[in-house]
Amino acid sequence: MNCPCCSGKDYMDCCKPYHSSEKSAPTAEALMRSRFSAFAIPNGGYLMETTLPAKRKFHNTQDLQDWGEINQWTKLEIIRTPSSDQVEFKAFYTDDDGKPQLHHEHSLFKKVNDRWFYVSGKFLD
Ligand SMILES: [Zn+2]
Predict the structure, then answer these.
(1) pLDDT tens digit string along 23-62?
(2) 36 C-alpha to center of ligand 1: Å?
(3) All domains of the chain, ordered by start, with CATH?
(4) In what order do the strands lie in the sheet with 115-124?
């Protein structure tokens, strides 16, 4: 199966080792890609685990899982990585009404004890 993050690689050789905790994502961009894939799979637990512990109270594992499930995740585009801890991306998906949607976000990540975490994101037009 092609990895949902649109890397062109097989899921087994791309985001799966991160989802199954065999490896941790080496860069903020790799973590971002694996989080997009985690919406597509979906894997709400992974989305929560890769959120900075101090920010987890703003999220809910079941909501993340449900959000992954109700939408069809069609494409991820990394727009730019202005610094090692920032990623701007566009996530394309089809909602449960069959309408194509675009989520454009500038995200902030943080490395703690050699692991990358998602901190927060600013939604863009
Ligand atoms: Zn991937």
Answers:
(1) 999 999 999 999 999 999 999 999 999 999 999 999 999 9
(2) 8
(3) 11-124 (3.10.450.50)
(4) 72-83, 86-94, 100-112, 115-124
